[in-house]
Amino acid sequence: MNAFEEERQMMIRLQEADFVVVELTLYTNTHPTDEEALDQWREAIKEAARLRRQYENRYGPLSLYSIPSEQAIEAGWRWNQPPWPWQR
Amino acid sequence: MWVYEKKLLYPVEVSTCNPKLAKYMMEQYGGADGELAAALRYMNQRYTVPDKVIGVLNDIATEEFSHLEMLATMIYKLTKDASPQQLEEAGLGAHFVNHGHALFYENAGGVPFTSTYFQAKGDPIADLYEDIAAEEKARATYQWLIDISDDPTLNDSLKFLRERENVHSLRFRESVVILKEERDRKKIF
Q1: Which residues in B lie closer than 8 A to residue A20 (C-beta atoms)?
Q2: What is the arithmetic mean of pLDDT over B142-163?
Q3: Looking at residues B125-154, what average pLDDT do you find?
Q4: C-alpha A47 chain-centroid distance
Q5: Taking CB atoms and an 8 Å limit, are A30 and B73 in contact across chains?
Q6: Which ipTM score applies to this complex?
Q7: Do B6 and A12 touch (CB under 8 A)?
Q8: Residue B92 main-chain phi, psi, to 5 deg
Q9: Within a 13 Å sphere around the CA of B133, how many CA atoms are in the beta-carbon half?
Q10: Residue B47: CB partners within 8 Å, gap ≥ 6?
Q11: Residues of A in contact with B59 (CB under 8 A)
């Protein structure tokens, strides 16, 4: 797997994990007493945060709420740098 | 407030430059039942609904903005390499002389976006019924787009969006039930 493909796969895994959070957030909004769903929701947030850290440590922050890692800074990461999502 | 995330909600890939398909996608970008109308409708209604359904409107509105970015990505990728001649052949000649390769909030017929596409009635039940209808109309539009498109990778993203409309419709229906239950409880006591 080349570097480009590796990054792409990590991004897809993060998109999947983030989507689980989006979906369970909507579900728990209208099912506030469903304890099993609330447990899943909390776990989904943890898993998405874990994958986000993993991605951002290597490739740099996806939002300005994350601290740029040494590795990303050394690799020359800048916020204002392509590719933007529509350029990928 | 919002913080930008440098990623799409779901990947958008197109097989080939196809300005005709881009023109059709504009229906969901700046059309009456499109993502901009949906995002602005819910974001604006959330201030005057009961607390129990604010989260639904807030979070679905936020998701709609991520859908809007997906639509923009589709249109951008389908047109970025198109020559003026290709745009003209696709029916985007008038678009090109006014906007070049830029995107514009308009529907597939070139009609500019307007806030008269949606309401804010100040009546939660009336607003939520409009929201359910909006989701169903958007779902139908995605189906017509999938039916007319011959781009398999684009269709993958369109199918994702179509399914999201179903889920949003369901969450709005549940919101109506929550509000009606609350109303009936108040009558009893």
Answers
A1: none
A2: 98
A3: 98
A4: 9
A5: no
A6: 0.96
A7: no
A8: -110, 20
A9: 11
A10: none
A11: 22, 25-26, 29
